[in-house]
Amino acid sequence: MQIERVQELLLTVRNQATARFSGLGIIISDIPCHLPITPLRPKIQLEPSLPTVDALLKVSDQTTEYHDGFHVLSSSLQLQLISQYFSPPIAAVSFPPNDRVVGGRYAAAMFGSTLTGVIATGVVSKSYGIALFVDGTEVFVAAPNIVGSPE
User: Fold this and answer.
1) Rounded Cα distance, 82 and 150, in Å
2) Under CATH, to which class is 3-142 assigned?
3) Taking the model in full, what pTM does it have?
4) CA 35, 141, 14, 116: dihedral to nearest 10 degrees?
5) Mean pLDDT, 10 residues at a time, over the chain (151 residues)?
6) Which strands sit side by side in the sheet containing 79-86, from one edge to the other?
């Protein structure tokens, strides 16, 4: 899998997000059954016909019940699971410099990227932009530019 494809996906989500965008966390893994995740909603339905970017934008809208948690994608970037509580163990990694304020989703993505079976993790936020992690290291960062208007 090429990390550049994940970068492109996250950039596209950031660039197409509207003002109702709630933020996004993704886990790239082909073995989600081995991840420390659990569904946040009792009934989670995926729309298999939607392209991945469209599906991620849809579930990241503040008005949907699925906007919270992480979404799991396969190495081919196909959406497998949505709205998952992700609770990786704390790992010995370095947070960004103090001039960047990050939160729980960022920390979970950073820690979670160190897990066996996780290819990469990523987050998109209105406040700090994009962060993509591989093995506990931030391998790609992009500033926020989510300025869309509600649809």
Assistant:
1) 22
2) alpha beta
3) 0.90
4) -10
5) 92 91 95 94 78 92 88 94 93 78 89 96 90 95 66 43
6) 37-39, 79-86, 70-73, 24-29, 118-125, 129-134, 137-142
